[in-house]
Each structure stands twice: as structure tokens, then as C-alpha cells.
Amino acid sequence: MEDQVPIAQETGGLYSGRHVRDATLLLLTGFALYLCWLLARPFLAGITWALALAVVAYPLNHWLERWLRPSPAALLSLVAIVIILLAPGTLLIQKALDEAGGSLGVIGQRFSAERIQKAAERYPPFAKAIDWLKVRFDLDQELKPSFQRHLVTTKMPQPSGSSCSSMPSLALARSIERRRRLRH
After folding, report:
1. Which residue has the higher pLDDT, 34 or 107?
2. pTM above 0.70, yes or no
């Protein structure tokens, strides 16, 4: 044992070569992980949906692979998932956008500077903000033409009663008008 040379121990405390190297590698690793996160962030929604659809489609795909080869089974699974899950979702989004457009039409029909003044009188905390808007913008001049253009293109009927209770009837009237235009 006396023939062995003792291992040199590093001295120097916190700023020794080994500690600096470890800290540098830790910082570089953290920076690299941050860059990976920045690269992956735009794709996370797609990856999440792909994972969810894969989990949903796996039992159907596994069942179809008993009778078909893997590629046709995967194709049939994909078509089934698109028809069962994604098509109704697309229709719901379309209906939501139609409702939003109808609401915009109702707002445009009822928009006026007098109504804003009445709102300012009813809600004094908002009066300063409304006065600030009036000084900087002519609200009737700026917004009314764009709402009128929207109404001309959608041919929205005039609602009766409150706007919330008339929304289903507005949506029905819009869909009937759209079908009528498609037929002619």
C-alpha cells in the first residue's frame, strides 16, 4: 500500500475547477432545455390532439387489425374517428361562429351615441371612460357603417324582445334564409 501514490484532492472550495465545470454544464443544460421548449411549444396542441386521438382510436384499430392488414385498418380507423369525433365538432364551431355574427348584427342595430350616454348616466364609474372615448372617436361615424355593411350581407331580421331570448330565433331565421338562397 505504501507504493501507491495518493490521489490529489482538489482544494479551493466553491470555485474549484470541478464546481465551475459542473455549474457551467448545469447552466448549459438548462439553456438547452429552454431552447427545446421554445421549439416544441407551437406544436404542443397538435401533439396533444394526436395523442388523444391515438388513445381513442387504438381499440378500433386493434379490432380491425384482426381481419385486415395494418395499413387498411389504420385508414378505416382514421376515417371512423374523423366522422365520429371531428365532423360534429366542426359543425359546432360553425354554429358558434354564426351565433357570434348574429350577435354582432344585433349590437350594430342597437348601437348609438344616445345609448352610450344613457349607459354613462346609469353607471357613473364608467362615465369617465365613455367621455374619454367620445373625445377621441366619433363612435356613430366609426362603427355604424361597418355594422350596416354586416347587416346587408347577412340580411338579419329585426329582433323583438331582449337580444338573448331572440338569439335562437335569429339563428333559425339565418339558416332558413341561407337555405332559401342556396335553392335559388
Report:
1. 34
2. no
